[in-house]
User: Which sequence fits this backbone?
């Protein structure tokens, strides 16, 4: 069975700092990769996704993620965070060609101090 | 455009009472539907998914059950709630024709006392 690890449970940054959240998965086959974000009091929403092609994926609000197949990683990055980026971030994986389920990581709470 | 609704938004129930949470999707047909439970620090755990009316797959054995009486309606139920059923329950959908990302509802916060 596939699994997803997010090693940072809580990250605290000051505004303008750079962000990198780690995500590693365990599955040897072809995968689809996602980052979801949950802002306080809002729905869980998609930040970005990778299905194929360029391993550097750009999402909304200046976020990007890089798929490194050899490392089974899909880390999320942002060069300069804002207070409004305070939220919980979830990495998720499903096997390519399967809509049956997403496997989620345990989430990373990001707090950005003004 | 597609929208997904869940109700109630919050619920406080005593141990041993029944449960019924409802999820409906608008603006699409034949969606895949999912129930997740989100526990603090533990991410989202898939409970059930459905690829069609009356078709339910259970991912985790537990005190809960799911039903899909209509194409765009997904219900999460329990006959007798346990304390451990407390949590945040999310419904999600995606297209049955393209294996795309899932779209989530606003969730239901359930507290079992």
Assistant:
């Amino acid at each position: 069975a596939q699994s997803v690890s997010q090693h940072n449970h809580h990250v605290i940054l000051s505004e303008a700092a750079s962000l990198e959240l780690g995500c590693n998965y365990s599955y040897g086959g072809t995968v689809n990769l996602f980052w979801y974000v949950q802002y306080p009091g809002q729905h869980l929403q998609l930040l970005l996704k990778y299905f194929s092609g360029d391993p550097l994926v750009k999402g909304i609000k200046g976020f990007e993620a890089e798929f490194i197949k050899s490392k089974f990683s899909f880390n999320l990055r942002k060069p300069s965070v804002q207070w409004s980026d305070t939220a919980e971030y979830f990495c998720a994986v499903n096997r390519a060609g399967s809509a049956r389920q997403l496997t989620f990581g345990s989430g990373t709470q990001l707090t950005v101090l003004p | 455009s597609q929208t997904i609704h869940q109700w109630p938004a919050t619920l406080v129930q005593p141990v041993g009472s029944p449960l019924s949470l409802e999820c409906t999707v608008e603006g699409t047909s034949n969606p895949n539907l999912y129930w997740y439970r989100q526990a603090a620090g533990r991410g989202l755990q898939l409970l059930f998914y459905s690829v069609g009316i009356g078709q339910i797959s259970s991912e985790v054995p537990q005190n809960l059950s799911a039903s899909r009486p209509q194409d765009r309606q997904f219900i999460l139920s329990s006959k007798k709630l346990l304390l451990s059923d407390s949590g945040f329950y999310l419904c999600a959908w995606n297209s049955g024709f393209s294996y795309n990302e899932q779209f989530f509802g606003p969730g239901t916060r359930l507290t079992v006392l």
In short: Chain B touches chain A through 26 residues (CB under 8 Å). The first strand of chain B starts at residue 3 and ends at 7. The radius of gyration of chain B is 13 Å.
